[in-house]
Every structure is written in structure tokens, then in C-alpha cells.
Amino acid sequence: MSDKIKVVVCSGTACFVMGASDILLLEENLPEDLQGRVELEGANCLGYCKDGANGKAPYVTVNGELISGATVLSVMNKIREIAYA
Prior knowledge:
Layout: E1 5-10, H1 13-23, E2 38-43, E3 60-62, E4 65-67, H2 72-83
Parallel strand pairs: 1-2
Antiparallel strand pairs: 1-3, 3-4
């Protein structure tokens, strides 16, 4: 099995109210073929909101790649892209 896919979800106030709370539940709802392959963690604040060039909240990184305006679907798509590359 390859290394785990690391997902870091910003849990700062703006991100949390903009949908990060839903993304934090992603690990519980992963398809069977991806269970055990994803490491999901919350972070107090990733700091991306301080620079307007980074898009909008919520912010998530998947293996270090930033997703702004993240949704469960966009994060899941990135996980699949990495898992099946």
C-alpha cells in the first residue's frame, strides 16, 4: 500500500462556518476502497485567509496542495486523483 494521503482541514472560525465542519467528517464516509488510505486532521488555522490571493474559505490541503473554497466533493475528487494516479 502506498503512503497515506494527508488531508489537513482549517478549523479556524471563517473556515469552520463556511463548511470545514462537514469536511472534517469525510473520513467517516470514505468509500471502502479508500478507507485506511487517508489521514485527516484539523488545524486551528492554516493562515490562508490572511492573503486575498488564496481564494476563499474553507481551506484544505491534500498532500500539501491547497484547495480554497473546499467542499466535501472537491476534497474527495482530489483524494481520488491522488489515490488512482
